[in-house]
Queue: 2 jobs
Job 1
Amino acid sequence: MAATSVVVLDRGNNTTCTVNLFGATVVSWRVNNQEQLFVSKQAVFDGKRAIRGGIPFVFPQFGQWAFGPQHGFARVARWHVEKLPERLASGDVEAIFSLMDDDFTRSMWHFQFRLTYRLILREKELHFNIGVYNPSKELTFSCQLLLHTYFKVPDVRRCQITGMHGCMFIDKTREGAVYQETREVVTINEWTDRIYQNTMQEHIITNVVSGRKMRIQKYNFPDTVIWNPWSEFAKEIGDFGDDEFPNMVCVEAGRVAARRP
């Protein structure tokens, strides 16, 4: 398998989105030639290890998994191009990717499934539409799903993130203790790994590229994960530079909380 198989959506005006078919990982999103996503300089593109950065696709498990790799197999599987990039009447560009069960997935997770992943590149927006289908008439399955988005930022300590006020969160830096977020905006000044439950449908991140704001809008994704390894854990990640943590923040929309209030 060519580890560098990519599909590029090009809207013109130096606005592009690049998808690596390994994991259907969005590895670049440029708006007027300004990169919006963080990819580690030490990311490995060998078609084996999950790509460190961009937008990895987490399915069917978030976090540690007894039956397969952390965060599931979707981000380390070879996806299919269902529809090559095509310009719509609006001028936007659409592409569709898909993943179905095969020997590789069934060796870990014995269910039939089909995922569709539709991307639409707009002038200043990137839209995702995800479908999870179960073709089996006998077996039902439950799954977790999340877009593990790495946003590029000049200095994470200057970012503020809205949309979590009043939400309960699982703090993985404190052995999974559950707290309620009392802050109007979330800031990051230390190792952060939190699963916020039942978050608002919109988050705004301040001070991203060129000091701008990034708006995240989500539907049917009730949870939001905030992650930054900070200096102490950056050193433990082999495909992540020791000094890269200030230049990224993961704000990840998904459906991953095990228990819902």
Note: Residues 230-234 form the longest helix (5 residues).
Job 2
Amino acid sequence: MLLWASLLVLAPVSGQSAAAPKPVISLHPPWTVVFRGETVTLTCHVSHLRAGEYITWHLSYLGKDLLQKTPGNTLKVRDSGRFRCQTKDSPPSDSVRLIFSSDWLILQAPHTVFEGDTLVLRCQVKGRQKLITVKYSWNGKVISVSNEGQDLLIPQASLNNSGHYQCIGFLEREHYVYKSSTRIIKIQELFPYPKLRVTPSQPTEGSSVNLSCQTQLPLERSDTLLYFTFFRDRGVMLSDWSRSPELQITTIWREDSGSYWCTAATAIPSIQKHSLPLQVHVQGVPVSGVLLETQPQGGQVLAGEPLVLVCSVAEGTGDIAFSWHREDTGEHLGRKQQRSQRAELEIPAVGGSHMGRYYCTADNGHGLARSGALNWTPQES
């Protein structure tokens, strides 16, 4: 019913090294409350156990701390207490509390239940007596009545199923009613809400951006498959569902600024969790280094031939508005707006009237920049 493993699954975090694996304890039978005189076998799951290496077990009970070493990774237990295990090189496992009860009726539950698991509760009576009716209560409210003493199954448990549980049993051929002790059961989070990380946090236009959807699975569920997807403003889906928690936007522009978030989910049963939205503001690079040139180079064309005025910028991102002007007459010759650092304006047939001083300007919304003046004179035939 319980799956155990010893590897930590962590959505990749740049520059972060993997932590030393912590052992995990499983129980057989899986219950943390059993009757006095019964036996529970603890298994210490570790990533690697060398030949001849011992497992160290820690027992805490009534203020006493005891140690025991076993050549294998199992330990048979008949006394109440809190148990942890570790190898020579590993940190201690999380503790497991076992109760060997002398009550007539006990409510049994697994040590750990994660959201999405089926929560199994079992009402047990001591000895060979038989229950004819069992009632299960949650936070003082009866939630199930069974005339055959069956287990209570809560499929796809959620965090809302945490609470105080108790069972009430009616014995066969007796009119006496037994009540179990109240058990506090906490459904564990399968994985925390993801966090979206954007690198770089303030990207510039035309650059690439990496999105990382970061979350973490517990040791006991390290084999769970997680799927990821990314969104922007009003649910615009940026990617299909994928096993990768990373997404690269190869080229980002100012209009891509907005609110971004990601979703992590399991397949079956489906558990989906969304990150908080993260505002991404794409920075524009102002235009600079505006230069006006001619084609052919040097402007050596005869009257009646075409002349091309080439306006370019050394830096500048996004849509750039280019404009061409005559300095001596104040005439505006033309304008083009495009996502390019270079634009051309053609004069189809030049003549003596075109002789003069020319310049161009460029503007991408972060301030207008102007080229130096270029003096053009038609070549004599």
Note: Residues 1-19 have pLDDT under 50 and may be disordered.
